[in-house]
Specification:
It is a single chain. It is built from 5 helices and 17 strands. The protein has 276 residues and is α+β, with helices and mostly antiparallel strands. The protein has 2 domains: 167 residues, 3-Layer(aba) Sandwich (Lysozyme-like), CATH 3.40.80; 93 residues. The protein has a 6-stranded mixed β-sheet, with helices on both faces. A 5-stranded antiparallel β-sheet has the order 9-10-11-12-13, with no helix packed on it. A hairpin with a 5-residue loop joins strand 11 and strand 12.
Amino acid sequence: MAIEELWIPSPHYTASRDAYNVAAFHTTQGAMRFRDLGAWFQNPSAQCSSHHGADQYERGVFGAYVYENHTAWTAAGANRYSIQIELCAYAEWSRSTWLSKPIIIDNAAEWLHYICEKYEIPYTLLNNSQAQSGSYRGIAQHFNFGAMGSGHWDCGEDTFPIDVILDKARNWSGGSAGSKGGITVAGSARDGSGRLWSVGSWDGNGQLNFKIGNGVFSAIDSDQSGAIGGPTISFDKSGDRMDVTYINSSKKMCLYTTQVSPVDWVWSELGGKFQA
């Protein structure tokens, strides 16, 4: 059991730790991509870090900034017994805003499942006093640590859908056969340089994802969801571009196209009425 990590090492850590009793969620309050967060954690002036990061743009891939056997610097006095993830999000988000972002929700659930199973942390939400004691085992948000955790209020006491994430984590299946991190691969094609492009749809919400070669899957369009048929991918030699076709929830055939370089997907509706 593992998660797919992109190593972006931060110099801000302590090379030891206590037993991990708490899996802790944070919000970045700024960086919206885990790669940008990693760049900030590498800044000498940052003086902060986290073990992992996740965003709304790359499903099933996690920034890894501090080795799990080291202490990250993100919750002050609670660091020594907590393993941490930064979600690229804002604590000000409403519950409905959180729930409109299924990729980050699923990333949070997958991470929580991985951590709880690996460190035998129970799927139990801790209250403030339990989170601050260091001896209770379970799940917390940054706000639960109170003043000892620098008095932050993320991820949002009444708005962060920890109940949804917890339920998904308990029942995490790790994706279905023929999938990669939940992405069902539906087609592939090589561009003019021989690079393999793969395209598929996310099992939970029908969002189209692609990757090039041995890269990681990322959304073609972070606002798109609901694909019910396809997708397929082809290379147009005359235009040096990649074309992805699929059927949307209205049973219309749709097209995303991009030049091979730079990658900048453009959408159009082709019409018709098709079976999935």
